[in-house]
Amino acid sequence: MPRIRFDSVEKRFGQTMVLPPFDLDFDDGEFTVLVGPSGCGKSTTLRMLAGLEEVTSGEIWFDDRPISRLEPKDRDIAMVFQDYALYPHMNIAKNMSFALRLQKVPKAEIDAKVAKVAEMLGIEQLLGRKPGELSGGQRQRVAMGRALVRDASTFLFDEPLSNLDAKLRGKMRTELAEMRNTLDKNMVYVTHDQVEAMTLGDRIVVMANGLVQQQGSAEDLFKTPANKFVAGFIGSPTMNFLDATLVDDGGTLTAQGPGFSFALPPSMRERTAGLSGPEVIAGIRPASFALAPDDAPAGSRIDLSIKVSEYLGTQTILVTTCGDHEILVELDSGARFQRGTTMGFVVDPETIMIFDKKTELRL
Amino acid sequence: MAAAQIKRMTPYMFLAPAAAIMIVGLLYPIGYMVYASFLDWNPSQRIGEADFVGLRNYVTLLNDAAFRESAGVTLTFSAIVVVVEMVIGVGLALLLDRNIRGISVLRTLFILPMMIAPIVVGLMWRYMYHPSVGIFNQTLKEWGFEPIPWLSDSGWALTSIIIADIWQWTPFIFILALAALQSLPRTSLEAARIDGASGWQQIVYIKLPLMMPVLVVTALLRLIDSFKVLEVILVMTNGGPGLSTEILSLRISRTASEFRELGLAAAMSNYLLLILLTLTVIMFVYNKVVESRAQAIRQQAEEA
Ligand SMILES: Nc1ncnc2c1ncn2[C@@H]1O[C@H](COP(=O)(O)OP(=O)(O)O)[C@@H](O)[C@H]1O
Ligand SMILES: [Mg+2]
Questions:
Q1: Where in the numbering of this chain does the ABC transmembrane type-1 domain appear (chain B) (predicted)?
Q2: Quick one: which of A21, A27, A280, A287 could link to A8 by a disulfide (CB 3.0–4.6 Å)?
Q3: What is the ipTM, given to two decimal places?
Q4: H/E/C letters for each residue in A106-129?
């Protein structure tokens, strides 16, 4: 398996800069997920890797081999497309064996490989059908099968699950996660869904506006996001952001705003020392809130008035307001919550993140 | 009358004018022609005065060597122009289906011949084929070759009109093929590139098979049209030399105007009509089959 490296790769369409020069480094045999909102350049990155889109400048390396000028077929890759891109006029067996037939692999060997992959994906009974005769989920499997039969060193996926309904998507996600463990391949997977990214990726690359925001494991991204964008993008329900002012309150650093005042851990004093002003953004994950015990000191609690309560079974999501801010709170579904009431909550100081208001970097 | 009944009648009322025009403008002349083909009818007679001769005209035609030769010329002409135009037209479309600077200008240039009036095309080519001052023979002379008797030799005349027709009608195939190419599923072609298909293999294994339904209909349309070609050949050779370029439509017009055999001309028209009708029905049935198969498949997929 080659190690894939992007070396100041840049992409423009005509005059439009889509991806300013960036570096990326994928480890051998790693499952890498590119995740980001729609239009941020994930597909373009993947397509440059596949050879479907030219690199404007920079170079892509497979180990020590420059590949950015190679035809797709010379890159030893297989790809699964969002719309599956099956060949409508060929039956499923022919679809899956197309690449092998072009390589003039002996027929017996082709049949054996197709049969093996078809069995693995549970599509043996579909081999004689045309793509138009399959349901969406079956087509998705065939597209996967076509890539697997190839036995390429690197697999590329461009939002392969986004055209499936929610239930099927969950199932396929699990199967993909299993497949990742059994296949020793490089996989690069593009999605806009952070849940997919978190569950599948060994390494997750978060992109926005053509820029790589951060890369790391799911845990890294969740616990130590580099900036406000990553903090807001990873995790569900999304993180709450509150405009706050840093105030030294009798020796304790606190983040204060209309209706709240959170004491911050001592380590924060050092980290925020370089700031030009006291204005910051405080980030609090919905799950960091807890109902305030009766004896909670007044300084550490925040009063939130409940607008909507969404019961999800084990959890309940509360949409609440605090002054002008809308705040999401995630709680275990023990207590009952009345719309319109105001309740007190506390937050563990260690879980509060502080972002520079100007650069939006986490401090 | 119940309101529901009126409602049911409404569509037919809207259809009535169109139906009337069709009956007056289409069915009446055809019926007239079919009736005339059973008559021994001279243009100086009124239709009522002509003798009814049953199928005699049709039988006469089958035994008429000149008619059979004319039919042969038509079939040869049509077969050759359709095959050559399909090959060149589709080939050009495959070649020009890419985003290069100036390609749209080139595409527009390619379809110009189709937009020129047939009479003008005929005159233009007659002039270019002129034995002494035509551009072809001038050029041949300059290069030191013998001039070619383009239109005056019975061996060359058919080739010459075929060349002119190819020039005029290849663009028709070209634009339809190009439209078909550009509506192919783009990602399937990308998948083929990743699967290792060379440009040529993409054409053979993906593009052509996917374009096939459009190409079949295009070829049939062109075939039907080539059976009816008249003006260009009329202007260029008027069927000569001898009968070498006398296609059916020319023979029909000569039978009516020169030989003054209206009944015979009508019978000949009906033979031509029969051939065209057969082709049209084939095309119609083909379309229906493709459509219903696609629908059945879609239904199956949705139920699954
Ligand atoms: N062929 C193209 N020509 C011009 N702009 C394009 C082209 N393809 C993509 N773009 C632009 O590049 C940006 C990134 O697109 P894409 O990589 O498809 O985003 P994503 O896959 O992350 O949703 C978008 O703004 C899109 O409009
Ligand atoms: Mg995309």
A1: 71-283
A2: A21
A3: 0.83
A4: CHHHHHHHHHHHHHHHCCHHHCCC
